[in-house]
């Protein structure tokens, strides 16, 4: 339904609240989500001449009141707004629309939700929008408290944007059970696989009632933690780590300020020892990082170099690091946090990062090369690191000749906005590149119980999302059992609440053992997490053993076992 056009220019929030509350009189309540609605993972990063149809046929926005002109006191230009009623804090809301502006060639547009009871406003999505085509904005939110009246509106900080046009807007609510069911459905599709074990005798006849036992040996999905020099020689710490994780990243030991604190004085002692530890325990390692664009973490002597001197130094850095560790690290974060900082490009030119990637690829062609940055999934308001900003940076570097291979999302969260996290992953997933959550933690100021609660939500969302190929926690234990923001254990390696969450999820996300009997067709069927397995089949006095791998596939894995013969996979 359309409400009369209103221009709200209040001197204070109270006036805004009063005017909008008057609009609610006689209006319909927000309708509940229809049963069985499945989450729509579709997203777009290209600007289109015409908008696509609304997801979920518009969702509850089909019944929302609309204001054609909307203003608030905070900075920015505004356009159509939707008035929403009876919104619940227990619901996850997925929002999307197509956006176009008039005025400048491009500008960032935010979608925001304003709850009138407490005049609280939060960003729920953003997009880099153009004036000559339609851009897709996707986001989401969950309210901190239920609201009788809320306003969903749009904002751009560009003073030259005279109008924001919105098409195909959609707001779809999901109950907690629905949201979690989507996760479980995706996990079955992307992290597990159906298996059929068929048992026959030496004559090829099916065997009914054979005992089948399957044991998982290794997990396919990389799940790890940062480590630091404090794990070296610390047997309790090493045992605790290797019992849980199959991936690692060195907290600081590979960073330039650590390996070359003064020019020409290289020291890889700690990095070598950490590498020896992970390799001896079959733990994959990410290389973090070659260059950090933040000048605060650039070696002091490097900051004093002139252009030609700096160019020589960075070339020597790549050569030294990657020739020493060629083939040892599965990934390299080539440029860390370049969405926020530009130390090297500011001094060496806009093509410097492209040159870094090209040189690194020549030095270690088997490693996957990443950008890595913060606030991409953590903060909707940080437009420097929005999904569209990330995509724009990738495209700029691709124009410079870079072939991109990986997207690193740090994941230093406060209280996470989980529907927004999923929306950002949807958008980045359209690039068909590996996406890793590379430095996940929850801020210490929230307290250990909240850290554990929010960590579980982030990990469940990441593990269930089809775009995510690995997760690494930023939980290296330093001196005196301290961590950057979040520890998993105390000094005695007794779990803290966050550690309990990790252990519970690790147990949930693996198939330790499956046992059963073949049916009347000589088959035993089950679903198992991806990874390596040992298979033992026994019948009377006959036994057959073997191993098999479950890799990602939509097809059922068929395994034929001939008793008194080898397993045929």
What does this structure look like?
By secondary structure, the chain is α/β, with parallel strands linked by helices. It is 26% helix and 31% strand. It has 13 helices and 26 strands. The protein has helices at 13-23, 176-190, 235-244, 256-259, 269-280, 300-303, 307-324, 343-348, 352-363, 387-399, 418-429, 448-464, 497-508, and strands at 65-67, 77-78, 81-87, 92-102, 106-115, 120-130, 135-141, 147-156, 163-174, 192-200, 211-219, 223-227, 247-250, 284-292, 331-336, 368-373, 406-409, 412-413, 435-442, 468-473, 513-517, 523-529, 531-539, 542-550, 557-562, 567-568. Strands 12-13-14-15-16-17-19-20 form an 8-stranded parallel beta barrel, surrounded by 5 helices. Strands 1, 2, 3, 5, 6 and 8 form a 6-stranded antiparallel sheet that branches. A 4-stranded mixed sheet has the order 22-10-25-26. Helix 2 crosses helix 12, helix 7 (307-324) packs parallel to helix 9 (352-363) and helix 12 (448-464) runs parallel beside helix 13. The model is unreliable at 1-34 (pLDDT under 50). Belongs to the glycosyl hydrolase 10 (cellulase F) family. Residues 1-29 form the signal peptide.
Task: Quickly list its features.
six-stranded antiparallel beta sheet, alpha/beta, 13 helices, globular, 569 residues, eight-stranded parallel β-barrel, disordered N terminus, 26 strands
Brief description of this entry?
The chain has 569 residues and is α/β, with parallel strands linked by helices. The chain contains 13 helices and 26 strands. 26% of the residues lie in helices and 31% in strands.
């Amino acid at each position: 339904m359309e409400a009369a056009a209103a221009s709200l220019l209040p001197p204070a929030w109270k006036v805004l609240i009063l005017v909008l509350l008057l609009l609610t009189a006689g209006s319909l309540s927000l309708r509940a989500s229809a049963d069985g609605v499945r989450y729509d993972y579709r997203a777009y990063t290209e600007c289109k001449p015409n908008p696509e149809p609304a997801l979920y046929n518009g969702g509850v926005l089909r019944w929302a009141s609309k204001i054609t002109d909307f203003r608030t006191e905070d900075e920015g230009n505004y356009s159509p707004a939707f008035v929403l009623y009876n919104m619940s804090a227990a619901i996850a809301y997925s929002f999307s629309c197509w956006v176009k502006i008039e005025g400048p060639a491009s500008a960032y547009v935010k979608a925001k939700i304003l709850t009138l009871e407490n005049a609280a406003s939060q960003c729920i999505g953003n997009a880099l929008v153009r004036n000559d085509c339609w851009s897709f904005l996707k986001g989401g939110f969950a309210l901190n408290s239920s609201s009788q009246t809320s306003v969903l509106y749009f904002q751009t900080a560009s003073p030259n944007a005279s109008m924001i046009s919105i098409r195909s807007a959609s707001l779809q609510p999901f109950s907690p059970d629905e949201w979690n069911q989507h996760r479980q459905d995706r996990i079955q599709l992307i992290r597990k696989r159906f298996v059929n074990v068929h048992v026959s005798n030496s004559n090829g006849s099916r065997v009914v009632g054979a005992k089948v036992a399957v044991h998982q040996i290794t997990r396919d999905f990389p799940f790890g933690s940062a480590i630091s020099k404090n794990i070296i020689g610390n047997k309790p710490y090493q045992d605790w780590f290797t019992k849980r994780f199959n991936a690692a990243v060195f907290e600081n030991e590979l960073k330039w300020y650590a390996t070359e604190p003064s020019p020409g004085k290289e020291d890889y002692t700690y990095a070598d020892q950490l590498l020896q530890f992970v390799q001896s325990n079959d733990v994959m390692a990410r290389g973090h990082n070659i260059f950090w664009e933040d000048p605060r973490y650039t070696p002091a002597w490097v900051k004093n170099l002139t252009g030609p001197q700096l160019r020589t130094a960075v070339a020597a850095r790549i050569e030294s690091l990657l020739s020493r560790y060629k083939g040892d690290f599965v990934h390299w974060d080539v440029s860390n946090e370049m969405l926020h900082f530009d130390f090297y490009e500011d001094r060496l030119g806009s093509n410097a990062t492209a040159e870094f990637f090209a040189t690194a690829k020549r030095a270690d062609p088997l490693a996957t090369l990443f950008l890595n940055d913060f606030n991409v999934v953590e903060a909707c308001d940080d437009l420097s690191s929005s999904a569209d900003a990330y995509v724009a940076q990738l495209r700029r570097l691709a124009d410079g000749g870079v072939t991109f291979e990986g997207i690193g999302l740090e994941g230093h969260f406060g209280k996470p906005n989980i529907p927004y996290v999923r929306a950002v992953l949807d958008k980045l997933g359209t690039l068909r590149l590996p996406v890793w959550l590379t430095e996940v933690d929850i801020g210490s100021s929230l307290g250990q119980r909240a850290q554990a609660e929010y960590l579980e939500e982030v990990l469940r969302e990441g593990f269930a999302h089809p775009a995510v190929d690995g997760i690494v926690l930023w939980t290296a234990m330093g001196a005196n059992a301290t961590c950057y923001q979040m520890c998993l254990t105390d000094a005695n390696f007794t779990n803290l609440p966050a550690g309990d969450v990790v252990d519970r999820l690790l147990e949930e996300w693996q198939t330790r053992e499956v046992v059963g009997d073949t049916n009347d067709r000589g088959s035993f069927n089950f679903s198992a997490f991806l990874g390596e397995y040992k298979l033992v089949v026994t019948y009377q006095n006959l036994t057959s053993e073997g191993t098999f791998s479950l890799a990602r596939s939509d097809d059922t894995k068929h395994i034929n076992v001939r008793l008194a013969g080898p397993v045929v996979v």
